Amino acid sequence: MSAVEIKPGVYWVGAVDWNVRQFHGPSFSTPRGTTYNAYLIVDDDITLVDTVHEPFTHVLIDHIAEIIDPTRITNIVVNHIELDHSGAFPAIMNLNPDANVFATKNGKDGLGKHFPGDWDIQTVKTGDTLITGSRTLQFIEAPMLHWPDSMFTFIPEDKLLLPNDAFGQHLATNKRFDDEVDRRILMDEAAKYYANILNPFSKLVARKLQEIQDLQLDIDMIAPSHGVIFRTDPEAILGAYERWASGVGQPKVVIAFETMWNSTSKLAHALLEGVTDAGVDGAIHQISRSDINTIATQIMEARAVFIGSSTINNDILPSVAPLLDEIVGLKLAGKQALAFGSQGWAGGAVRTIGDKLEKAGMQLAHEGYSVKWVPTDEELAAARTLGYEIASSILD
Ligand code: FEO
User: Fold this and answer.
1) One domain for residues 138 and 217
2) What pLDDT is attached to residue 26?
3) Which of 269, 288, 305, 308 has its CB 3.0 to 4.6 Å from that of 319, i.e. a possible disulfide?
4) 269 is catalytic
5) Number of helices followed by number of strands (H, E) in the chain
6) How many CB atoms lie within 10 A of CB 325?
7) pLDDT at residue 139, rounded to an integer
8) Region 297-324: what's the mean pLDDT?
9) What is the mean pLDDT of residues 47-65?
10) How many domains are there within the chain?
11) 11 belongs to the catalytic site
12) How far is CA 14 from CA 57, 88, 109, in A?
């Protein structure tokens, strides 16, 4: 990959990480890899917006060197201090010890903790600007999108928004723009990114989208710090964020279960048949065989979720716990929900699931559907009816 000019005088100088398969420790599966996007603005003053994950420092410097002498950087804007964007910061500072550094107050504090050193960091807030010659860099604080320090940089002369994590996707590709990749894959990855990183902060996302509207920013390109750049239809990703932040899903049911001797699996499939009878889109996952981040994404985009488990030791099967924890942690609230499962001599799993879903802010559509041992034909028919009734209730 070479540096790519995304606007006259503005260059992508980031790195593609083809092989990363887990992000944020083991919490986010990244089967399609990711990118760490940094941007170089060549004006009277030369400005670097963000850097890259530390192991890719040489890639960043090589890309900058394709355009200018890497020791000629005047300004470094740190939109976000997380290490996937700031890892190469010390190396860039070593090359440019007199560079002006700009970050939010939280950014300045955090940068000092990440990289103890005598950095001269200027703090900026929403409304502050930096003139680089023919351009004005306009800063917009964006706390919790994705960390307290995060901010966006907007360049009105280029109609270019650099929002760091927001609007990102974990998608490694040798293409840089939205119109060069498969649209469905792009939006699937954008949704997965939103569900697993930004959904807990949806109220703040909604407010930030409103603020962008109120500021009447004239945006024709959104260049995030992961994945590809939206140049053809930035409204599409803005609209998707509005929809995801609203918490209102599509008429769809996600069924996720774990089973011991196939009885809970039979219930799950009977529920899906009911969902199908109602003409509603349904997805089903055996949790231990599925990717939890993908299940979480589908739950975010759905209006109902059914979680099932056999009972063991008066509780859920262990593989169900991580999904329930994700639902709570990611604040996947406001869906119609059902707990179900098969039990032997004593129950417990259905109660645990129901309690956890309620705690997550789901609306239990039923007290919980539990059967003893192997479900009879009548019990399977009742599950099918239950699936039909709940699915019918979420139709427009
Ligand atoms: Fe891509 Fe919050 O770092």
Assistant:
1) yes
2) 87
3) 288
4) no
5) 12, 24
6) 13
7) 98
8) 98
9) 98
10) 2
11) no
12) 9, 11, 25
Q: Identify the residue whose C-alpha is closest to ligand 1 atom 3.
A: 82
- Report the first-to-last Cα separation within the chain, whole angstroms: 47
Does residue 136 lie within any of the structural domains?
yes
Residues 6+ away with beta carbon under 8 Å from 226:
34, 35, 36, 37, 84, 165, 168, 169, 170, 171, 193
Residue 130 banded pLDDT, cuts 50, 70, 90: very high
| Domain-ending residue, one of 225, 246, 267 | 246
Ligand 1 close to Cβ of residue 146 (< 6 A)? yes
Same-domain pairing of 283 and 314: yes
Please answer whether residues 253 and 67 qualify as being in contact, where contact means their C-beta atoms are separated by less than 8 angstroms.
no
Mean pLDDT of 295-309: 98
Helices (H), the chain: 57-65, 83-86, 89-95, 105-114, 183-193, 202-214, 234-246, 263-277, 292-300, 321-329, 349-359, 377-393
Can you give the residue range of the structural domain that contains 316? 253-391
| Cβ of 85 below 6 Å from ligand 1 | yes
58, 117: one domain: yes
Are 113 and 257 found together in one domain? no
pLDDT-based confidence at residue 270 (cuts at 50, 70, 90): very high
Tell me which of 146, 170, 269, 285 is the catalytic residue. 146
Q: What is the CATH number of the domain that holds 368?
A: 3.40.50.360
Q: What's the rounded Cα separation, in Å, for the pair 1 and 259?
A: 46
For residues 124 and 139, the answer to whether their CB atoms sit within 8 Å is yes
Is residue 66 located within the same domain as residue 172?
A: yes
The reported pLDDT for the residue numbered 222 is: 98
Domain boundary among 226, 246, 266: 246
Shared-domain flag, residues 182 and 126:
yes
The verdict on residue 396 lying in a domain is: no
The answer to whether residue 230 scores a pLDDT higher than 90 is: yes
Residue 380 backbone zone (phi > 0: left; psi -120 to 50: alpha; other: beta): alpha
Do 232 and 149 belong to one domain?
yes
Atom of ligand 1 nearest to the CA of 36: 1
Query: Model confidence over 205-221: pLDDT tens digits?
Result: 999 999 999 999 999 99
Tell how far the Cα of 150 is from the centroid of ligand 1, in angstroms: 9
Beta bridge partners of 177: 229
